Amino acid sequence: MTFPVLNRLIVAVGLCLGLGLAVPAAAIDIDDMSDAERAAFRSEIRAYLLENPEVLMEAIAVLESRQNAAEQEAAMMAVAANSEALFNSAFDYVGGNPDGDIVMVEFLDYRCSFCRRAHPEVAELVESDGNIRVIVKEFPILGEQSVLASQFAIATRIALGDEAYALVSDALMTMRSDVTEPALAALAQDNGLDPAPILAAMDDPLVAQTIEYNRALAQRLGISGTPSFVFEDQLVPGYVPLDGMIEIVANLRATAP
Q1: What is the extent of the structural domain holding 247?
Q2: pLDDT score recorded for residue 3
Q3: The pLDDT value given to residue 76
């Protein structure tokens, strides 16, 4: 805990105790006290907290709650400021129900174990709900193999369209071998796709532009890990189990205007 935070907690507890200082409550500032006053003040606070440690825990809980609320508000403002890039970018694959009443965006990396864990649960949510528009943001952050996998997925969409992209994206999530061009070519063939146009499309400038666009967007949103989700106006970093996603969607619908 930093000293400014600790000082604020000390003053707050002191005010609650009514220590009888000869100054208005609003004017109490521990930094303006004499050394003797400061020592006496802190001694009283220390004695009280040792006898009633739950008071400090309650104060910390309130402080954390306020900080969390401020962070959530900042995240919602960032989502609103970047809504066009999040929800209407031509760079991204759109699945689920294109006219769904809930929009879900996922930033993913094919080499991320939690993305792989989330993948079938996201698919189940979208299929079972039937009214969710899902947007995939290619966001490779785990090294060269992650970048190569995303490049191949994006190139698939450029060369062969959305249906082929969906096949390749699913396959990349379950791929266990090292990501190399021969391995990717074999993955395409295993899914009934011709790898030649995909490999050729990997040199398309749009591939690199898509990844850089998503990285810049993630930075503006404060996203540094995968998976990260945006449900409508809510930024939800990290893995979310199926039950949690269902609850988020239900709450959004319940509070919709």
Answers
A1: 84-255
A2: 44
A3: 75
